[in-house]
C-alpha cells in the first residue's frame, strides 16, 4: 500500500511521518474518516515493523499517521538517539494535531496507537482529551519502576549496575552511547536472550542500534499508569502474557484503571510483529475493536 511522506513540527523540530489513506467509506461520516496516530517503542522507527499494522488499519477504512520521534529515524533533531519521555509525548501530541489537519479525516475521531514504550505514551496522550475516540495499547510499558523490578528475572544485578553507571556518566559528562539490543551479558538497553535477533528482524534502514545510556533514568520516571484512569474513550490493551520486557501485571492494572477491553496472547514481547505467530490475531483484534467502537460513534 502506498503512503505519502510528510513532516510536522514538534518543539521546533521537523518530525517525519507517513500518511496512509483509509480505503473505502465503512467508517466515514460527513466529517471524514477516523485517523490513527502511531509510533514505535524504545528507539524504534516507523520503518521498523509499523507498516504492516498501518496497512491493515488503512485497509479497514482508517487513515493512519505513523511518525518518528525527534532525534530518531527520518526525523530531525539533536541530540540523536536520546530518549526524552517528555519530548516523545510532546511529539505524540504534535502528531495528533497534524493528523487532525489531514484532508478527509474527522478531527474529532482521533485514535492513539502505541506499542511497547509508545503504548504508555498513547495512554498519556489520550488522557483528558475529548477528541480521542479510541486507544490501542499493544504490549504497553506503563510503569518504568515495575519494569525495572521485572528485569531482575532476566538480568543479573551486575548487568543492571553497569547500565546504571553508564547512564550517570552520560548524564554528568560527555554522552555515553550503548546498543539498543545486545547479547546477554553485554552492555545494552535490551539484552534478554533472543531480543537482539527479534529486533534486528524488524529493523528498517533508518534504525540505529545505538542509544544514549541515560535511557534508564528516563524509564524510571515513565509511569503513564497514573494517567490511565483519565482515559475516557474506549481502549484496547493487548497483553503478551509471557512478556519479559513490559510487565504484564502492570499492563493489567492500567487496563483496569482505563476500563479497557483486554486481549491476551500466550507470547513474548516481540511475537506480535509481522512474521511472528501472533501478529495476525493481534491485527484482527485491533481492526474488530476499532470497527466496532468507531462504527458506534
Radius of gyration: 18 Å
Largest sheet: 8 strands, mixed
Low-confidence spans: none
Q: How many separate helices?
A: 9
Output mean pLDDT. 92
Helix content: 25-40%
- Please state how the strands of the largest beta sheet are arranged side by side: 1-2-4-3-5-6-9-10
Give the overall shape, derived from the CA principal axes.
Answer: globular
Q: Report the count of strand segments.
A: 10
Termini separation: 27 Å
Please tag this protein with its features.
alpha/beta; Rossmann fold; two-stranded antiparallel ribbon; 20% strand; globular; hydrolase activity; Hydrolase_4; FrsA_esterase; AB_hydrolase_fold
SSE inventory with pairings:
Blueprint: E1 4-10, E2 13-20, E3 33-39, H1 51-59, E4 63-67, H2 85-100, E5 105-115, H3 117-126, E6 132-138, H4 144-151, H5 157-172, E7 177-178, H6 195-202, E8 211-212, H7 215-220, E9 235-240, H8 248-258, E10 261-265, H9 279-296
Helix pairs in contact: 2-3
Amino acid at each position: 500500500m502506498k503512503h505519502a511522506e510528510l513532516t510536522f513540527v514538534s518543539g521546533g523540530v521537523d518530525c517525519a511521518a507517513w500518511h496512509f489513506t483509509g480505503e473505502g467509506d465503512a467508517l466515514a461520516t460527513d466529517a471524514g474518516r477516523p485517523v490513527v496516530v502511531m509510533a514505535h517503542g524504545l528507539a524504534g522507527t516507523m520503518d521498523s515493523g509499523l507498516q504492516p499494522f498501518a496497512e491493515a488499519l488503512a485497509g479497514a477504512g482508517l487513515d493512519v499517521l505513523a511518525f518518528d520521534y525527534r532525534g530518531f529515524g527520518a526525523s530531525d533533531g539533536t541530540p540523536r538517539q536520546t530518549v526524552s519521555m517528555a519530548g516523545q509525548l510532546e511529539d505524540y501530541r504534535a502528531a495528533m494535531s497534524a493528523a487532525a489537519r489531514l484532508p478527509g479525516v474527522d478531527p474529532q475521531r482521533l485514535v492513539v496507537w502505541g506499542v511497547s514504550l509508545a503504548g504508555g505514551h498513547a495512554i498519556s496522550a489520550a488522557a483528558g482529551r475529548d477528541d480521542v475516540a479510541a486507544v490501542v495499547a499493544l504490549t504497553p510499558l506503563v510503569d518504568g519502576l515495575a519494569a525495572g523490578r521485572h528485569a531482575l528475572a532476566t538480568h543479573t544485578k551486575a548487568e543492571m549496575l553497569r547500565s546504571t553507571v553508564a547512564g550517570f556518566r552520560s548524564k554528568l559528562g560527555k554522552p555515553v552511547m550503548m546498543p539498543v539490543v545486545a547479547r546477554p551479558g553485554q552492555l545494552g538497553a535490551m539484552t534478554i536472550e533472543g531480543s537482539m535477533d527479534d529486533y534486528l528482524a524488524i529493523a528498517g534502514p533508518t534504525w540505529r542500534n545505538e542509544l544514549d545510556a541515560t535511557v534508564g533514568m528516563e524509564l524510571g520516571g515513565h509511569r503513564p499508569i497514573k494517567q490511565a484512569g483519565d482515559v475516557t474513550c474506549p481502549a484496547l490493551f493487548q497483553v503478551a502474557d509471557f512478556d519479559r520486557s513490559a510487565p504484564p501485571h502492570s499492563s493489567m492494572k492500567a487496563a483496569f484503571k482505563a476500563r479497557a477491553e483486554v486481549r491476551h496472547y500466550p507470547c513474548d514481547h516481540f511475537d506480535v510483529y509481522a512474521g511472528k505467530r501472533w501478529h495476525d490475531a493481534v491485527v484482527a483484534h485491533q481492526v474488530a475493536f476499532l470497527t466496532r467502537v468507531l462504527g458506534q460513534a
